[in-house]
Amino acid sequence: MFPEPSLSPGPHHLNRTGCLIKISDNTGRGVYASQFIPKNTDIDISPVLLFSKQEYENHGRHTVLDHYTFKWTEGRMALALGLGSLFNHSDPPNVTYSLDIRNDSIRYTTARNIHEGEELCIFYGHNLWFTPAKPSSQTCSEPETDDGWGGLTVVGDDQQDEIMDIPNPYADGDTEAITSEEDLPFIRLKPAPEEEDAQSIQTVQAWVVDVPDPRHITTLLKWLKQAGLDGPELGHLKRIRKHDDLTSLLLSTTADPPQPPEDLNLPAPYLLPVPTSAALTLPSLSLKSALWPTMYTPRRKDEPEPWTRGKVAWAWNAMKRTVGAATKARLENDELPIAAHIPAPYDDRTATSPLPTFIAADTRRSTRHPLRHASIIAIRQMADYRASQGLDPPPDDDAPSVDPQSDPKETRNGSNYLLTDQTFFVTHEPCIMCSMALLHSRVKEVIYLHPMSKTGGCGGSACLPMLKGVNHRFTIFQWKGTTKVTAEDIRIDPTIDV
Amino acid sequence: MDSNDHLKWMKEAMIMAEEALAAGEVPVGCVFVRDGRIIAKARNRTNELRNATRHAELEAIDCIIADETLTPEIGQQYPLSKTTLYVTVEPCIMCASALRQLGIQEVYYGCGNERFGGCGSVLGVNEELDHPVHKSYKATGGFRREDAIMILRRFYITENANAPVPRSKANRVLKTEINPPSSPH
Ligand SMILES: [Zn+2]
Ligand SMILES: [Zn+2]
């Protein structure tokens, strides 16, 4: 089952879980299981040897150490002792690892059941912690090169932020209790007012065809699919209208009229103004449906989703961690104090395999790339992780695809948008570029600490999820100044694009 | 530069869009031109990289900034100030903002983008939208617009190739007539 191409035994190694060192022609020394190891077993805790930043810059990086060391705190580099340096890279990996900063060690844990004879591998990341054994090459088709996308990444949730020690004000109490809007640590930005009078209904011209014989409807619906006209842009409308014995079919918003199959002998399609969005309220529904039958989606946008005390406590911790990463970026790497954070969703807390957490700091200074913003780096890390897990690509933004309004939970691990169901934490309101990147990725909600009134895309300079025409809405929360999560001042020049 | 030059560069962008189509990606391609030569070209890679933000423009920008011969001044704020972009579809809001942050000189595109267009269709990130620091840039559409539309249609047809085959054969015909744009360029 696990072919071992010319494996020769390596040095003896005493290991509680029976891990062996073997030598392969392709990858050199590696770690192999001598017996079945169940999922979630700690297979090794490797102590690390630390090098100061200076020491490493001057000496370490010029030596073979550079293939084995990884980034520690305060710019230091660490060499794992024990088995730690011998795990090879695999994508996806079968072993995860977490840094134990306090005890100067790294813990390696099996990510799934391991069979006897199988090699144990970790995911090196994109030059995040470990330097891959093979030298990186600077070609454009090679995203794994060290192009500064790394920032700070945590896969797993064990890293301690020791920069601040402010107690979570939501830590105690009934975790299921609903928190009132006033007691939330953030304010919800009001969505665009719902269209409730005839003048305010936004419309677009759409092609419609009358179908004298209703038996042709099935054929026509199939044809719509075939012709690529069943995309999400008209998903907020019903396809068929029955009006005084006349059945009509909604075709498209294309510039020119689609041509239905000729053998049906339909009359020529004509243009009709139809609503541009679903109805959120009943008065709006009746106004919109007078133009064309419209979907009614009251729950998603009308009533704010309640926040339980447990979820608020989760959000508070997540924001604190985001601020920790931002502070660290400035103190240790002289970057702008900006960070973005995609924690595992709160609803995943009881899941057997929750999604990992992604944290990224701004790296525009160290990479000399003006667009290495924290948000877009965090999105990229998550996408790279998903790709490494072999998950299906998200549906295309610009292509006809499944209706993104359909139940997101069922498809989250399948073919789905990157950030469906995710809460995105960021220290400062993201710029136009990053806000649109979040919209493209279909984020559920964005929570930021500092507004950027001149450059932000979530209410500052523009509010992208409220623009007419865009096909996704997300909720925006702004942290209240009174709910302290930070001891450091991380404010920045208001003209900066975050 | 006359119109023929623009069409010449746009043809190169179309080649990249064709490559995207062949790879099963939304067919959008672009080239960046400086001093009369192409310094970078790219296409959409959103499917391949599981990332809806990996548009052609951002892919090409990463190549330019990674190349020291193209951005010789270290830490230069506007590395694209002497560079022109040719892209088959109007840059989206994200890319339009990225281009402004890098000080792009000018943009020429094929067809508009009603759903995400950042150069006027949905939001005028290139000039109407105020920015405290970055200067605006001009974006002009309509270059090889028909080609850009046709290749998107071809993508939609292949995308739906798995749909049930209807009885009529008429619908498999790729429509070729194109209405004039709502606003002339
Ligand atoms: Zn940004
Ligand atoms: Zn774009």
Task: For the structure shown, list the relevant keywords.
heterodimer, A: 498 residues, Beta-clip-like, Cytidine Deaminase, domain 2, 6-stranded mixed sheet, 5-stranded mixed sheet, B: 185 residues, alpha/beta, 30% helix, 15% strand, binds zinc ion, tRNA processing (chain B), Cytidine_deaminase-like (chain B)
Question: Can you give a write-up of this model?
Answer:
The complex is a heterodimer of chains A (498) and B (185). By secondary structure, chain A is α+β, with helices and mostly antiparallel strands. Chain A has helices at 53-58, 217-226, 282-291, 298-301, 309-333, 364-367, 374-388, 432-440, and strands at 7-9, 19-24, 28-33, 42-51, 70-71, 77-80, 88-89, 95-100, 105-110, 119-122, 178-179, 186-188, 203-211, 240-243, 246-252, 270-275, 307-308, 339-342, 358-361, 423-428, 445-450, 475-479. In chain A, the strands form 5 sheets. Chain A has a 6-stranded mixed β-sheet, with helices on both faces. In chain A, a hairpin with a 3-residue loop joins strand 2 and strand 3. Chain A folds into 3 domains: 1-141, Beta-clip-like (Beta Complex); 186-193 and 304-311 and 330-490, Cytidine Deaminase, domain 2 (3-Layer(aba) Sandwich); 203-275. Mean pLDDT of chain A is 78; it is low at 125-148, 150-164 and 396-415. Chain A is globular, with a radius of gyration of 27 Å. Chain A is built from 8 helices and 22 strands. In chain A, 40% of the residues are buried. Chain B has 185 residues and is of the alpha/beta class. Chain B has a single domain, classed as Cytidine Deaminase, domain 2 (3-Layer(aba) Sandwich), CATH 3.40.140.10. In chain B, 30% of the residues lie in helices and 15% in strands. In chain B, helix 1 (3-22) packs parallel to helix 4 (145-159). The longest helix of chain B has 20 residues, at 3-22. Residues 160-172 of chain B have low confidence and may be disordered. The chains are: A alpha+beta (498), B alpha/beta (185). Chains A and B meet through helix 2, helix 7 and helix 8 of A and helix 2, helix 3 and helix 4 of B. Bound molecules: zinc ion (2 copies). Residues 373, 375, 430-431, 433-434, 497-498 of chain A line the site of one zinc ion. Chain B: It is an enzyme of class 3 (hydrolase). Chain B: Belongs to the cytidine and deoxycytidylate deaminase family. ADAT2 subfamily.
